[in-house]
Amino acid sequence: MKSIRRQLTLNLLTGFGLLLVCSMTAIYFLTRLALLKEFDASLQAKAWTIISATECGRDGIHVELPDDYFEKANEDATPQYYEMWQVDGGVCARSPSLTAVDLPRRFGRTDAPAYWNLPLPGGHAGRAIGLEFSPKAEDERDRRSAPPMAVIVVATDRQSLDRTLNTLAVVLIVAGILTVCITVPLINVSLQRGHAPLDQLSRQAATITAESLASRFSVATLPEELQPITSKLNDLLSRLEQSFERERRFSADLAHELRTPLAELRSHAEVELAWPQKSDAQNYREVLDIALQMEAMVSRLLELARGENGKIALRIETVPVAELMEEVWQPLAAKAATKRLAVHFSVPRDARVQTDRTLFRSILVNLLSNSVEYTPQAGRLTIEWQADLQKLTVANTVQDLSPDDLPHLFERLWRKDKSRTGTEHCGLGLALSREYASLLNLSLSASFTSDNSLALILQPARAGAGPPRGSETLTTDAC
User: Fold this and answer.
1) Cβ-based neighbours of 324, under 8 Å, separated by 6 or more
2) Rounded to the nearest 5°, which phi and psi values hold at 123?
3) Domain 4-165, classified CATH 3.30.450, yes or no
4) Distance CA 474, CA 472 (A)
5) Mean pLDDT of the chain
6) What does pTM read for this prediction?
7) What would be the CATH architecture of the domain defined by 316-478?
């Protein structure tokens, strides 16, 4: 299982390790460069000491050094050697400790000597300096002519330098190991303390159940990085709480809706069993009506479930809006006339919409039948289609509906009428219409108009080009 803490520990250790290695490597090489520069400076000082004691006379180049100068130096732990050549001649001088061995003849200019590592005659590792110089003349007459050029090479044992560098390397390695050993537990402790709010959040989340959805996470006490996540979790809990509450209310409403027809069925069954000789067709018609009502409710619930699960196949085609509107309105016209409703249609006759005809028709049936059912006697009903916006508005006058009821209009089994009697509607039409609208990429909303009418608005969920605007509009007024 992937662990953020383990990944962070690994990343921190890797980054710290690389930084530590780079830092110690830089320290070692910078120190080595400084020590080597100091060592070379001492070599150069020895070379210039010998050069200052070198003179050029009529008998050639010779060095005025004490006979035991290098012998005393070689008695120390760091043996030293030198050898001098005339550029166009042979050896001018050399340290007695060289015996029959010659130093390498490499040199640079006076202002840029050559430095290199070499094995010394004694077998030890050494370092040498070589440079070309012009020795001074012994008397004034010799100074008038240009003296011959000479080359000097001075070499010395570098064991002390190597021991210092080795000691430095060991110290840096040990310090690095100790630093890593101390850093690992420090990183673990720091991560553990840093993840404490996450652990606390996890423990609190583990205690949340369907019965405790009202609880919320404390945002103010959490680190800044966790506050956005916690706020989203609180929003999620709020939505879950509302969803669970709707489901509980739906279950109660469904039980309430089914209790009345079931009680009626039971009553009819008990009557038929008690007095079978008085059975007539009317009783069976009432039983059939109850069964059809229950079947319609169950069918709509199944359609809602299919829509929510995305199991409804769509068949997109060009649908004539005015023609479909007339088809849907025809069975409702008689009831609208009985209630003396003032109905106004404003639908472009050549309006077209690309949609699924069956689902779109179901939405129209639910919207129009719902409006006819709940518009009061002698009320107004307006159906308007805006072709440029692909927008349908169904507005009707209402009596017992307030703005507070708008959020409940699309809830399943919700009706303003608490008695749930005297209507053929079961409170599923608008919920089903909204689900169908969502499948068709449409939105269905409700609002109150300026004249206190309820407007149900069906329009595209996303902005898009509608059909060409028609020039001829079907306008029908009915009372």
Assistant:
1) 357, 360, 361, 364
2) 95, -10
3) yes
4) 7
5) 81
6) 0.51
7) 2-Layer Sandwich (3.30)
Strands 54-57 and 136-137: parallel
The CA distance from 221 to 201, in Å, is 11
Hunting for tokens 């006697």 — which residue is that? Answer: 377
pLDDT digits (tens, 9 = 90+) for 225-236: 888 888 888 888
Highest CATH level, class, for 227-308: mainly alpha
Residues 396-448: pLDDT tens digits? Answer: 998 878 787 787 787 766 666 544 444 455 567 787 788 888 888 899 998 88
Find out whether 64 and 84 touch, Cβ atoms under 8 Å: no
Q: What span, in angstroms and rounded, lies between the C-alpha atoms of 408 and 132?
A: 103
* Residue 41 burial class via C-beta count within 10 angstroms: exposed 0-12, middle 13-18, buried 19 and up: exposed
Question: Which segments of the chain belong to CATH 3.30.565.10?
Answer: 316-478
Distance from C-alpha of 254 to C-alpha of 294, rounded to nearest angstrom: 11
Q: Distance (Å, rounded) from C-alpha 311 to C-alpha 305?
A: 9
With a pLDDT cut of 70, the percent of the chain lying above it is 81
Q: Which positions ≥6 away from 104 have C-beta within 8 Å?
A: 116, 118, 128, 130, 153
Q: Across the chain, how many H-helices and E-strands are there?
A: 10, 16
